Amino acid sequence: MSKRPYQQRLRARAAEQTRDRILDALYDRLREAPSAPISVDEIANRAGVARSTIYLDFGSRSGLFDALTDRLLRGAGHERIVEAVADPDARASLRGGLEGGVRMYAAHHDVFRVLSSMAKLDPDGVGRAIASAEERRAAGMATLARRLRAQKLLRPGLTATAAAHIFWIFASFDAYDLLATGRGLAPDEIIELLVEGAEHSLLAEV
Protein backbone atom coordinates (compact mmCIF):
# COMPACT_ATOMS: atom_id res chain seq x y z
CA MET A 1 0.00 0.00 0.00
CA SER A 2 1.33 3.41 -0.94
CA LYS A 3 2.41 5.69 1.91
CA ARG A 4 1.75 8.77 -0.18
CA PRO A 5 -1.85 9.50 1.03
CA TYR A 6 -0.73 9.13 4.66
CA GLN A 7 2.24 11.42 4.12
CA GLN A 8 0.03 13.95 2.38
CA ARG A 9 -2.34 13.94 5.35
CA LEU A 10 0.58 14.50 7.71
CA ARG A 11 1.84 17.41 5.65
CA ALA A 12 -1.63 18.93 5.46
CA ARG A 13 -2.05 18.60 9.22
CA ALA A 14 1.35 20.17 9.85
CA ALA A 15 0.51 23.04 7.50
CA GLU A 16 -2.80 23.61 9.28
CA GLN A 17 -1.08 23.62 12.67
CA THR A 18 1.47 26.14 11.41
CA ARG A 19 -1.32 28.35 10.08
CA ASP A 20 -3.15 28.17 13.41
CA ARG A 21 0.04 29.03 15.29
CA ILE A 22 0.55 32.12 13.16
CA LEU A 23 -3.04 33.28 13.70
CA ASP A 24 -2.74 32.60 17.43
CA ALA A 25 0.41 34.74 17.49
CA LEU A 26 -1.38 37.62 15.77
CA TYR A 27 -4.41 37.31 18.06
CA ASP A 28 -2.25 37.35 21.21
CA ARG A 29 -0.20 40.29 19.91
CA LEU A 30 -3.35 42.34 19.31
CA ARG A 31 -4.50 41.73 22.87
CA GLU A 32 -1.12 42.39 24.49
CA ALA A 33 -0.17 45.64 22.71
CA PRO A 34 -3.23 46.99 20.89
CA SER A 35 -1.78 50.42 20.15
CA ALA A 36 1.62 49.36 18.77
CA PRO A 37 2.22 48.84 15.02
CA ILE A 38 2.36 45.20 13.89
CA SER A 39 4.87 43.83 11.41
CA VAL A 40 4.95 40.49 9.62
CA ASP A 41 8.44 39.90 11.01
CA GLU A 42 7.17 40.23 14.57
CA ILE A 43 4.34 37.77 14.03
CA ALA A 44 6.72 35.33 12.33
CA ASN A 45 9.09 35.50 15.31
CA ARG A 46 6.25 34.96 17.76
CA ALA A 47 4.95 31.98 15.79
CA GLY A 48 8.43 30.48 15.33
CA VAL A 49 8.27 30.50 11.53
CA ALA A 50 10.09 32.22 8.71
CA ARG A 51 8.72 35.47 7.35
CA SER A 52 8.32 33.76 3.99
CA THR A 53 6.01 31.16 5.55
CA ILE A 54 3.46 33.84 6.37
CA TYR A 55 3.52 35.15 2.81
CA LEU A 56 3.29 31.60 1.48
CA ASP A 57 0.27 30.77 3.65
CA PHE A 58 -1.56 34.11 3.57
CA GLY A 59 -0.27 35.91 0.50
CA SER A 60 0.27 39.28 2.18
CA ARG A 61 -0.02 41.18 5.44
CA SER A 62 -3.57 42.03 4.45
CA GLY A 63 -4.27 38.34 3.82
CA LEU A 64 -3.07 37.55 7.33
CA PHE A 65 -5.61 39.94 8.83
CA ASP A 66 -8.26 38.60 6.46
CA ALA A 67 -7.67 35.10 7.80
CA LEU A 68 -7.82 36.22 11.44
CA THR A 69 -11.03 38.17 10.85
CA ASP A 70 -12.58 35.19 9.12
CA ARG A 71 -11.60 32.92 12.01
CA LEU A 72 -13.23 35.26 14.53
CA LEU A 73 -16.40 35.57 12.47
CA ARG A 74 -16.68 31.79 12.21
CA GLY A 75 -16.07 31.19 15.90
CA ALA A 76 -18.35 31.92 18.83
CA GLY A 77 -21.85 32.91 17.77
CA HIS A 78 -21.43 31.77 14.17
CA GLU A 79 -23.53 28.64 14.58
CA ARG A 80 -26.36 30.72 16.04
CA ILE A 81 -26.19 33.14 13.12
CA VAL A 82 -26.28 30.31 10.58
CA GLU A 83 -29.25 28.79 12.38
CA ALA A 84 -31.03 32.15 12.39
CA VAL A 85 -30.44 32.75 8.68
CA ALA A 86 -31.95 29.35 7.89
CA ASP A 87 -35.09 29.99 9.94
CA PRO A 88 -38.08 30.59 7.62
CA ASP A 89 -39.51 33.14 10.07
CA ALA A 90 -37.79 36.47 9.34
CA ARG A 91 -38.59 37.73 12.84
CA ALA A 92 -36.74 34.74 14.32
CA SER A 93 -33.85 35.43 11.95
CA LEU A 94 -33.63 38.99 13.25
CA ARG A 95 -33.55 37.86 16.86
CA GLY A 96 -31.12 35.01 16.29
CA GLY A 97 -28.81 37.11 14.15
CA LEU A 98 -28.51 39.75 16.86
CA GLU A 99 -27.93 37.11 19.53
CA GLY A 100 -25.22 35.38 17.50
CA GLY A 101 -23.52 38.67 16.75
CA VAL A 102 -23.38 39.66 20.41
CA ARG A 103 -21.97 36.25 21.36
CA MET A 104 -19.30 36.65 18.69
CA TYR A 105 -18.32 40.16 19.75
CA ALA A 106 -18.30 39.21 23.44
CA ALA A 107 -15.98 36.24 22.89
CA HIS A 108 -13.29 38.41 21.30
CA HIS A 109 -14.22 41.90 22.49
CA ASP A 110 -10.67 43.23 22.93
CA VAL A 111 -9.48 42.02 19.53
CA PHE A 112 -12.56 43.24 17.67
CA ARG A 113 -12.05 46.66 19.25
CA VAL A 114 -8.42 46.76 18.14
CA LEU A 115 -9.28 45.64 14.61
CA SER A 116 -12.03 48.25 14.39
CA SER A 117 -9.65 51.01 15.47
CA MET A 118 -6.79 49.82 13.27
CA ALA A 119 -9.03 49.66 10.20
CA LYS A 120 -9.20 53.46 10.13
CA LEU A 121 -5.42 53.83 10.39
CA ASP A 122 -4.43 50.93 8.12
CA PRO A 123 -6.88 50.91 5.18
CA ASP A 124 -4.68 48.67 3.04
CA GLY A 125 -4.14 46.06 5.74
CA VAL A 126 -6.64 45.65 8.54
CA GLY A 127 -9.01 48.06 6.84
CA ARG A 128 -9.35 45.81 3.82
CA ALA A 129 -10.15 42.80 6.01
CA ILE A 130 -12.78 44.68 8.00
CA ALA A 131 -14.26 46.23 4.86
CA SER A 132 -14.69 42.79 3.32
CA ALA A 133 -16.42 41.49 6.44
CA GLU A 134 -18.67 44.55 6.56
CA GLU A 135 -19.66 44.07 2.93
CA ARG A 136 -20.83 40.55 3.72
CA ARG A 137 -22.66 41.83 6.78
CA ALA A 138 -24.37 44.52 4.70
CA ALA A 139 -25.55 41.90 2.21
CA GLY A 140 -27.01 39.90 5.07
CA MET A 141 -28.83 42.95 6.44
CA ALA A 142 -30.33 43.68 3.02
CA THR A 143 -31.49 40.09 2.58
CA LEU A 144 -33.17 40.04 5.98
CA ALA A 145 -34.86 43.39 5.33
CA ARG A 146 -36.32 42.04 2.08
CA ARG A 147 -37.54 38.94 3.89
CA LEU A 148 -39.22 41.09 6.55
CA ARG A 149 -40.92 43.09 3.83
CA ALA A 150 -42.03 39.97 1.95
CA GLN A 151 -43.56 38.56 5.16
CA LYS A 152 -45.31 41.92 5.76
CA LEU A 153 -43.54 42.39 9.08
CA LEU A 154 -42.05 45.84 8.50
CA ARG A 155 -43.86 48.79 10.04
CA PRO A 156 -45.91 50.90 7.60
CA GLY A 157 -43.88 53.35 5.52
CA LEU A 158 -40.53 51.71 6.21
CA THR A 159 -38.75 50.56 3.05
CA ALA A 160 -36.52 47.50 2.92
CA THR A 161 -33.55 49.77 2.21
CA ALA A 162 -34.20 51.89 5.29
CA ALA A 163 -34.81 48.75 7.36
CA ALA A 164 -31.41 47.36 6.31
CA HIS A 165 -29.74 50.61 7.41
CA ILE A 166 -31.43 50.47 10.81
CA PHE A 167 -30.62 46.81 11.35
CA TRP A 168 -27.03 47.53 10.35
CA ILE A 169 -26.74 49.83 13.38
CA PHE A 170 -28.27 47.40 15.87
CA ALA A 171 -26.12 44.50 14.62
CA SER A 172 -22.84 46.44 14.59
CA PHE A 173 -19.81 45.97 16.82
CA ASP A 174 -20.10 49.64 17.78
CA ALA A 175 -23.60 49.09 19.20
CA TYR A 176 -22.35 46.13 21.22
CA ASP A 177 -19.22 47.97 22.38
CA LEU A 178 -21.13 51.04 23.55
CA LEU A 179 -23.33 48.92 25.77
CA ALA A 180 -20.59 46.56 26.97
CA THR A 181 -17.87 49.14 27.57
CA GLY A 182 -19.83 52.35 28.01
CA ARG A 183 -22.63 50.89 30.14
CA GLY A 184 -20.98 47.79 31.57
CA LEU A 185 -23.74 45.45 30.43
CA ALA A 186 -23.43 41.68 30.16
CA PRO A 187 -24.03 39.89 26.81
CA ASP A 188 -27.49 38.65 27.79
CA GLU A 189 -28.55 42.17 28.77
CA ILE A 190 -27.19 43.55 25.50
CA ILE A 191 -29.02 40.92 23.46
CA GLU A 192 -32.30 41.78 25.16
CA LEU A 193 -31.86 45.51 24.59
CA LEU A 194 -30.76 45.21 20.96
CA VAL A 195 -33.53 42.78 20.04
CA GLU A 196 -36.15 44.96 21.69
CA GLY A 197 -34.78 48.11 20.06
CA ALA A 198 -34.56 46.53 16.62
CA GLU A 199 -38.07 45.09 16.79
CA HIS A 200 -39.63 48.37 17.89
CA SER A 201 -37.72 50.23 15.17
CA LEU A 202 -38.45 47.80 12.33
CA LEU A 203 -41.58 45.78 12.92
CA ALA A 204 -45.25 46.61 12.61
CA GLU A 205 -46.12 44.46 15.62
CA VAL A 206 -43.87 43.50 18.50
Task: Using brief descriptors, characterize the structure shown.
Arc Repressor Mutant, subunit A; 78% helix; 206 residues; elongated; single chain; mainly alpha
Concise structural overview:
This protein has 2 domains: 56 residues, Homeodomain-like (Arc Repressor Mutant, subunit A), CATH 1.10.10; 131 residues.
How would you summarize the topology of this molecule?
Layout: H1 4-32, H2 40-47, H3 51-58, H4 61-73, H5 78-86, H6 90-107, H7 109-121, H8 126-150, H9 160-170, H10 173-182, H11 187-202
Helix pairs in contact: 1-2, 3-4, 4-8, 5-6, 6-10, 6-11, 7-8, 8-9, 9-11
Q: How would you describe the overall organization of this protein?
A:
The chain is 78% helix and 0% strand. It has 206 residues and is mainly alpha-helical. The chain has two domains: 56 residues, Orthogonal Bundle (Arc Repressor Mutant, subunit A); 131 residues. The longest helix has 29 residues. The mean pLDDT is 88.
How many domains make up the 3D coordinates? 2
N- to C-terminal separation? 64 Å
Annotation field: number of helices:
11
Structural class: mainly alpha
Report Rg.
Answer: 20 Å
Give helix and strand order, one letter per element, not per position: HHHHHHHHHHH
What is the count of β-strands? 0
Estimate the strand proportion: under 5%
> Could you say which overall geometry the principal axes of the C-alpha atoms support?
elongated
- Specify the biggest β-sheet: none
- Please tell me the overall pLDDT: 88
In percent, how helical is the residue content?
Answer: over 70%
> Could you list the spans in which at least 5 consecutive residues all have pLDDT below 50?
none
